[in-house]
Recover the amino acids of this structure.
């Protein structure tokens, strides 16, 4: 039987929805026993949050001042010790998990299955390669531990309603002090998180300036949507890098995606292909984004976007 | 000798539209343009700038790959690397194998910094830097968009989902680089000529005493499911009506 340890992600005292998605991925292995590990300075509230995810057997709480910030070099040896008797260790394929999980795999002396998008069996997984232009099915040898990151856009969050017991665990592992956390730029308050939002409005280079992005923010606020951007808009300096949607930015799967002034470079498409409904607004009727859009509208975005906002308010 | 080691992977050029082989064993690479993995090019550029600022004496580029990877190493030498090492490995080297190779070479070369791309654009694994840091038991900074080196320590700014995260790490260390760290220089013709005289040393996994990690068995490679092209609406009114009909607004 598979025993799966899911490494929870959290920030600012809140569990990231990626954790429930990892549980959901783990639960697609038949008969798996799923435990969730919370590494934090004080994991009391986080453990309760994790305990409420359905399908979780036990929540393991590892409190330590060293775990206040997610430093891979500090967390990895603890995870290696905690996961010694598990058959699988899963973490999210967010920047948190991408930093941490390969270090865990390195300690176990195994390769990692990156970006699991489907589970075909306890040791067989599907994952995207070549920026999602091909899908690879791989077998991990049966006698090795499976360390994997879960592509969060591919899984629905496991439902709430669970009531798992919480166990406090003390791990006696020497921890390095060679890496010190300095700071993190504050996430912008008010709008939903881009990675997990149900609706997203993105702007591209056609916006022409950071100032002009205000029409995107305004439409997003009308829709209760998060705001994203194409790589071209980020590289042009209109918006910060954490808003980038695409292969090298965030891969998202909202119910509604509105692409404004985005032509649809392959690397952008990679980030949005799991969106349920894509709306494209672009003045170039030949733009590749229209090939994947459910609804396309050709015209001047500076006329269309305010008009759209107005009609949505009506 | 203050040395920086840089990883160079030969991959299908980023402009090539990749197609899956009809027998589903992989993607078509015959007659396809191959290049240095773009993230590795950024890692090399950063190493060269560190040297040009007088903070390093030598830049060594390393590739684990087929004989043809000499082409990419020559390009790296033309960009300005001082010497190159090719560790020959036909077929696909798993990230753990590559990390083991670097770990062995670190013992020989004693770099104070190892710079790698955050991922290769072919298998998109994104594992080698972190694995190497684990095997070496040294700090890592992954997906860096800014590096500041002073007084034997490194301040690394990383691109994370919440924005930017800054860590201070001791050296030696392993760094993986992201797109916005720098813009790599173009190679000039005289530099290509000069690069031909630089040292390119070839080794085998056996020479280094590295055991290949086996990796995973490829069951199947297939094209992704295609999205269907939708409909064009003529104005905002029609768009809003369509979205309302789907219950999206």
């Amino acid at each position: 039987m598979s025993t799966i340890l899911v490494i929870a992600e959290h920030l600012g005292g809140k569990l990231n929805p990626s954790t429930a998605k990892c549980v959901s991925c783990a639960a697609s292995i038949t008969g798996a026993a799923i435990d969730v590990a919370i590494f934090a300075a004080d994991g009391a509230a986080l453990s309760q949050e994790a305990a409420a995810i359905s399908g979780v057997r036990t929540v393991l709480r590892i409190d330590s001042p060293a775990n206040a910030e997610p430093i891979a070099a500090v967390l990895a040896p603890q995870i290696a010790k905690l996961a010694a008797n598990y058959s699988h260790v899963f973490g999210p394929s967010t920047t948190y998990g991408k930093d941490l999980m390969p270090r865990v795999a390195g300690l176990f002396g195994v390769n990692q299955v990156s970006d699991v998008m489907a589970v075909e069996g306890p040791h067989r997984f599907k994952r995207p390669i070549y920026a999602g232009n091909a899908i690879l099915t791989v077998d991990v040898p049966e006698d090795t531990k499976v360390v994997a990151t879960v592509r969060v856009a591919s899984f629905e969050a496991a439902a709430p309603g669970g009531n798992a017991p919480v166990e406090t665990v003390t791990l006696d592992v020497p921890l390095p002090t060679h890496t010190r956390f300095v700071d993190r730029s504050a996430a912008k308050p008010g709008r939903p998180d881009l990675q997990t939002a149900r609706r997203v409005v993105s702007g591209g280079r056609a916006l022409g300036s950071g100032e002009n992005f205000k029409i995107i923010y305004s439409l997003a606020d009308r829709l209760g949507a998060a705001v994203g951007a194409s790589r071209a808009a980020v590289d042009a300096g209109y918006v910060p890098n954490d808003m980038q949607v695409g292969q090298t930015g965030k891969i998202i799967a909202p119910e509604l995606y509105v692409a404004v002034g985005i032509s649809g470079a392959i690397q952008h498409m990679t980030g949005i292909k799991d969106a349920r409904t894509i709306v494209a607004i672009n003045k170039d009727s030949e733009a590749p984004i229209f090939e994947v859009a459910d609804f396309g509208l050709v015209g001047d975005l500076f006329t269309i976007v305010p008009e759209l906002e107005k009609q949505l308010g009506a | 000798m203050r040395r920086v080691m840089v990883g160079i992977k030969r991959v299908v050029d980023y402009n090539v539209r990749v197609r899956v082989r009809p027998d589903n064993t992989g993607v078509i690479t015959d007659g396809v343009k191959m290049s240095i993995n773009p993230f590795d090019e950024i890692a090399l550029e950063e190493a060269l700038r560190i040297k040009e600022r007088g903070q390093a004496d030598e830049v060594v580029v390393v590739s684990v790959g087929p004989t043809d990877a000499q082409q990419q190493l020559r390009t790296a030498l033309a960009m300005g690397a001082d010497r190159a090492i090719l560790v020959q490995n036909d077929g696909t080297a798993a990230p753990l194998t590559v990390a083991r190779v670097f770990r062995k070479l670190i013992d020989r070369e004693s770099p104070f910094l190892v710079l790698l791309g955050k991922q290769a654009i072919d298998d998109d694994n994104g594992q080698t830097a972190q694995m190497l840091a684990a095997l070496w038991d040294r700090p890592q900074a992954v997906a860096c968009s800014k590096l500041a080196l002073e007084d034997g320590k490194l301040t690394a700014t990383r691109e994370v989902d919440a924005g930017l995260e800054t860590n201070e790490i001791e050296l030696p260390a392993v760094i993986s680089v992201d797109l916005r760290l720098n813009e790599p220089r173009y190679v000039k013709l005289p530099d290509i000529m000069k690069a031909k005289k630089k040292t390119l040393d070839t080794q085998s996994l056996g020479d280094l005493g590295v055991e290949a990690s086996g990796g995973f068995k490829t069951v199947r490679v297939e094209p992704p499911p295609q999205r269907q092209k939708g409909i064009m609406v003529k104005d905002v009114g029609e768009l809003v009506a369509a979205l309302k009909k789907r219950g999206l607004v």
DSSP finds seven helices and 13 strands in chain B. The longest strand of chain B covers residues 140-150. Chain B has one domain: 3-219.
